[in-house]
Design brief:
With about 400 residues, the protein is mainly α. Helices cover about 80% and strands about 0% of the residues. The chain is built from 16 helices and no strands. The N and C termini lie far apart (about 60 Å).
Length: about 400
Amino acid sequence: MSDQEVKQNQNLSSIGSHNSSTKGSWFQILGVATRLGLTSFGGPIAHLGYFREEYVNRRKWLDEKSYADLVALCQFLPGPASSQVGIAIGMMRGGLLGGIASWIGFTLPSAIALMIFALVLQGFDVTNAGWLHGLMIVAVAIVAQAVWGMSRTLTPDRNRASIAIITAIITLVWPTAFGQVALIAAAGIFGWLFFPKGKVPDSPRLHFPISRRTAIVSWVLFLGLLAGLPLLRQMNASHVLAMFDSFFRVGSLVFGGGHVVLPMLQAEVVPTGWLTDTQFLAGYGAAQAVPGPLFTFAAYLGGAMNGLSGAVIALVAIFLPSFLLIAGALPFWDSVRSHPGFQSALSGINAAVVGILLAALYNPVWTKAINSPIDFGLAIAAFGLLMLWKLPPWVVVVFSAFGGAIIAALT
């Protein structure tokens, strides 16, 4: 390696260390996350694209590889991966309170909208609205931008690009949350065994202001609640306790997030008689029309069952496992990811993440959004506004919503 290359790597490392260790204002974290919560349409894969644009490209709170490492970690953990990435970045900037601020900002807009729908607007059908279809189309452009940008950094050579392609193919053939976890693990093992340790570049250090004692307490709380809540539920007939147990267990055991959570939630609230199938499906339709994480569907379910208090209980319970898991993992994450062998594994893992995103670009993002040539035209226009004109994502979201409404009016 030349002296110039060494100097460039040192500069990159110092920049990443500075950005990750600079403590951010909780109000700043809340403001950025709220803007994302108001504009991040398209589901969890699209959310990762929005996050990358905001946190990596625009604010440079962390570098591309560190962001990909966090995505890989959250893909391994149960729960909503995109929300967990946002919580992790908030904790990196402002500790536990920073994570809470990030979660509130990203989650509250859609949670409030769905809670209002549960209390007031049931029976209002938005599933066939043209503007909603436009929001699905913009997700194609957002995910395509993320795949393009991440592939240039994370799959720069033939071996890693091949891992991404193979992962994408297998993901399309075997589209399950377990399959994704298995592919990520296999890519990590391949990287550990076959990628040269000496040629893997060092990553900038990330500082998470959370102690290892806090991490251990988080793991104890997570396991204790997961095992203890069902026992307490058997001993106490409290409806509130039963709700908390059901939503906490769903948040603890679902891998992949997004639409994977729906059958588990249905199994908890419909057979028990808490909600009817009609109520459940009405809320699911409304959830497609709001930005932010699909896990906020819990606010609708809780609100439909027990009003405002039910919405709060369900929302806190389904996201609490994510907080405990992220707080338990982050204090150990930087030392683990800095190990030379694990860096090689992460090179394979990150290539697999690119492959999973590539597969998701086709299914479900493309297959659910692009139904005609004019849909494809709107997607190309949105992609051009993002990539060539560098417009903020929220502007492109508004543009696509109007485009979808116009297409619906003309067809």
